[in-house]
Amino acid sequence: MPRRVRKSRCQPTSAPPSPAAASTRRTTPRVGRLSRRSILASTPARGAVEAVAAAHEYGLVGLLSNCSVPELVGRTLIRSALSRDSFDQIVSSVACGWRKPDRRAFETVARQLAVPVDRLVYVGDTPATDGGIEACGGTFIDVTDTPLSRLPDCLNEVCRTV
């Protein structure tokens, strides 16, 4: 069942996954004491470098952008404090053919990260699009409610519940 992190509480609003889902997840590779997950970032913002670094402590980090201009994501990263090397995978809608909240956009980045789509934690600022991860069983962290400075604590709480 999808989980949403809102109001800086960092607690999923629904119950943790069922025991059947948990037994399937035990077969995923482990990173440290946590099951492998992927954290996705959307918009570079103040504190994004530290947030991406913190996300790497919990698993692979991808970027999924609703960009419709070829190579714009790469050019934007060149002008930011982040780089292509900050991410394990970068997917844009122009490259994959689907825009968020279409589940196929999230499935594409999950496939490229080699993790199940329901293991994604999406960090974004637009619930209408970025929150589409919840329809795939993943978790959405809304940075308009949870500042990037709180992301490490938030990820710790979210990743611990699964």
Descriptive notes:
Helix content is 30%, strand content 20%. It is an alpha/beta fold and 162 residues long. It has a single domain (3-9, 31-146), classed as Rossmann fold (3-Layer(aba) Sandwich), CATH 3.40.50.1000.
Index terms:
162 residues, alpha/beta, Rossmann fold
Trace the largest sheet across and list its strands: 1-8-7-4-5-6
Helix percentage range: 25-40%
Element order: H for helix, E for strand: EHEEEHEHEHHEEH
Distance between the termini: 11 Å
- Tell me, what is the CATH class? Alpha Beta
* SS-derived structural category: alpha/beta
Low-pLDDT stretches: 5-36
Shape: globular
CATH architecture: 3-Layer(aba) Sandwich
Q: What's the pLDDT, averaged over the residues?
A: 79
CATH superfamily: HAD superfamily/HAD-like
Number of strands: 8
Instruction: Please give the largest β-sheet.
Output: 6 strands, parallel
Q: What is the fold-level CATH name, i.e. the topology?
A: Rossmann fold
Q: How many discrete domains? A: 1
Q: What proportion of the residues form beta strands (DSSP E)? A: 15-25%
> What is the count of helical runs?
6
Write the topology of this structure.
Blueprint: E1 3-5, H1 19-25, E2 30-31, E3 34-35, E4 37-41, H2 48-56, E5 59-65, H3 72-78, E6 89-92, H4 93-96, H5 103-113, E7 120-124, E8 139-142, H6 151-160
Parallel strand pairs: 1-8, 4-5, 4-7, 5-6, 7-8
Antiparallel strand pairs: 2-3
Quick overview:
The chain is of the alpha/beta class. Helices cover 30% and strands 20% of the residues.
